[in-house]
Amino acid sequence: MVIVQGVIFILILVWASVCDIRTRQVGDYVSVMIAITALIGVTHTNIPAMLLQALVVAAPLVAAALIKPGSMGGADIKIMTASAFMLGLYRGLSALCIGLSLGIIGTTIFRKLRKKDIKESFPLVPYLAAGCAIGFFM
After folding, report:
1. Residue 69 belongs to what domain range?
2. Does the reported pTM lie above 0.85?
3. Beta strand segments in 3-133, E
């Protein structure tokens, strides 16, 4: 079941990444699909803990969005929350740290090479998706 869950999760993350790169918008259905995938093989007694862990992982993203409006898209927060629902607290926090680090490093290098403005916004979902994929296999 874990293999099936992982394959579905990765495919959803790839789809979300493509949508974010192409249109800079990711539909709400993506987060719902991740949350449904998280329920594969889970008993109902685990769900409250999964919800709490997802909220803990989402808290820094929500705080960043509230402190600096426009700094983070809603899809970024929703996808990371749904992914943390599946990954749990430690793998979810690891995925968040890895994804944000990849985003900062990758975008900085890419923009320096292309001589573009570093302060311009960029699609974050592909980086978060990479972090979540790594977190899934931890």
Report:
1. 2-136
2. yes
3. none
